Every structure is written in structure tokens, then in C-alpha cells.
Amino acid sequence: MLLHFVRTVFANVSLDRDRPREYKAPTSQFVRYEFTRAHLSQPRFRDKPFDSRVAFPPKGRNQCLSAGREADKWPPYNSSTAALKNSIDAWLQHLVRNGDLVKDTQQPPAAAMVITAKDPGAAGNSIKIVVSNVREDVANPPNKIFDVTVTETDTYTGLTPATIKDVLGTAAGGGQKPGLVFISSAAAPVLPAAGTNPLSTDPAKATINKADATPGAFDVTAKRGGVDGALTVVIIKDVVGQTFTLVAVWTKNANAMSPAAFSTQFAYEIVVSAPPGGGALLVPAPGTLVLAGGADAQGPTPASTVVPANP
Question: Where are the domains positioned within the chain?
Fold first, then answer.
């Protein structure tokens, strides 16, 4: 594992050391290093997961990996043997001692806003926000605008006609794993046919076909009313025996957004609030963020993330 770690690090190092690089550690951990005059800067950390990747080590903003003593914040390190931990510590200490691993002097970006799932529960952990095309608003310079896509994908595997109502619920927010849709038909569900089923009308709903392609396996209804409910699509797949997978997807795009407009345009799915410590909403940095921390336990909690500001 240590050899893999070392190879992974240096596979991302080139002689062109005057531009930022990204190092993708094993298990898709994410670290940003910068090379300047043959020196490898310290990771620049965010205090929330970014694109569902965890900073290594995720101890806070702009923290120094001091002689290897912070390696315990890297999850694979904690599951390693004592001998391997000692080897990793020794390697990191060597990098620090030789000046190859030094603290980054640049300050991390300010927070632009906090995004929280509209509904509590683990389904919020599948909400993805993509910010792109940050640019000057030519109609109102020097303000900036940006494009946004918000997507939630709820995947339910191993469902059967006998369990689908218990899992998805028969009302909004009900069931063992509430999400974008619930089962609204009164009759007992039957095995569905594979296919893609867009929801329509208001409240948005769809009737899923039976395995013989006739209507009436069960009905699904969006978690809330409003025109945005019709942006939901339900996909039935992996129909084997009496089991199947149901995937519910909601996605919406909006262009030329200001921070204030963003806070209202996606109100069906998310709540946009001021950054930690208060203050005005700022223009977010381009990138992909995935909400985290949502749970379905008693007293369910909504997923959320802190969005970095555009430099």
C-alpha cells in the first residue's frame, strides 16, 4: 500500500512545477498541492467535503501536515497495520525534513454560502450542485453571474412488490427511505416493467407499467406540488424474478444566475443561506459539490455543504 501511495504521488509530479496540480490519493481522496520552484506545498483544505471527496487530512483550512503526525485524518491510514503506519509516517517526515512538503502560504477561499437540502434525510446526500461558466455580468459590471445544475438521484435496489411501499412510503416524507417520490396508488403493487417514466401534471405523478407492459403496476407521485415536481423521472431497471431497482432523478438547469437568484431558483430541492459567520451571499467558485450529513434516523437531519467563493 505504501508503494502504491508513493507511486500515486509521484505519478502526478512533473518537471513543470510552476502551475497548480491535483493529487488524487488512493480511494479517491482529494488533495490539492502546488509546485513552486521544486517545492511541494501543503494541502489546501476545505472544512466540508467537496465533490464527495474528503481532504487529506480533513482537519481544517490550510493546515500543515506536520512531520506525518496528521496522517490519522486519512481514512485508509487508520485501517492500516502498525508497520505500515510507521512507514507512512517515516515517509512524510522525510518529505518535511527535506523541504519537499512545506506549508502553503496562500489563504483558502472565503465561503460563498451554505446549501442545505430542503428535506431532512439521507436522500439529501445524493444532491449534486455543479457551478460553471462564472463570468462578468455585462449588463451590470463588475458583478458576476454563473450557471448552475442541481441534481438529486435516489436509487433503491432489491425492491419487491411487497416491500416498495414500506421503503418509499405512501406519503411525502414517509417510508424507510423517503426521497423524491412515494407510492400513491392504493392497490397492492405488482412487478413493474423496465423503462423510463417521466412525471407530469401538478402534483406530478406517473403510472408505472406492469411486467406485461400494461398500465397499473403502481403509481408514483412527487414529494411536493409545484411545476418543478414534473422535472422528476422514475427509471425501473434490473427486473429479475420478483426484484427490481427503482431510480428517481430530479434535475434542473439555470443560467446567468446571481447569488440572490440562485437562492430562490432551486427552492424545490435546496435552501441557500448566508456563509458561516454571516454576511452577504457571494459568487461561488466553479466546481461540483455534493451535500453530506443527511440521515434518516429519528430526528432526521438535512444534508448540507459550505460553498467556496469564486476568487
Answer: 2-102, 152-250
Question: pTM of the predicted model, to two decimals?
Answer: 0.67
Per-residue pLDDT tens over the stretch 87-118: 888 888 888 888 887 777 777 778 999 999 99
> Environment class of residue 269 by beta-carbon count within 10 Å: exposed (0-12), middle (13-18) or buried (19+)?
buried
pLDDT of residue 108: 72
Residues in CB range of 223: below 8 A, 6 or more apart: 119, 172, 173, 178, 179, 180, 181, 182, 229
CA distance 190 to 215: 11
Q: What angle do CA 265, 46, 44 make, to 5 degrees?
A: 135
SS (H, E, C) the chain: CHHHHHHHHHHCCCCCCCCEEEEECHHHCEEEEEEECCEEECCCCCCCCECCECECCCCCCCCCCCCCCCHHHCHHHHCCCHHHHHHHHHHHHHHHHCCCEECCCCCCCCEEEEEEECCCCHHHHHEEEEEEEEEECCCCCCCEEEEEEEEEEEEEEEECCCCHHHHHCCCCCCCCCCCCEEECCCCCCCCECCEEEECECCCCEEEEEECCCCEEEEEEEECCCCHHHHHEEEEEEEEECCEEEEEEEEEEEEEEECHHHHHHHCCCCEEEECCCCCCCCCCECCEEEECECCECCCCCECCEEEEEECC
Confidence of residue 270 (pLDDT cuts 50, 70, 90): very high
Distance CA 32, CA 55 (A): 9
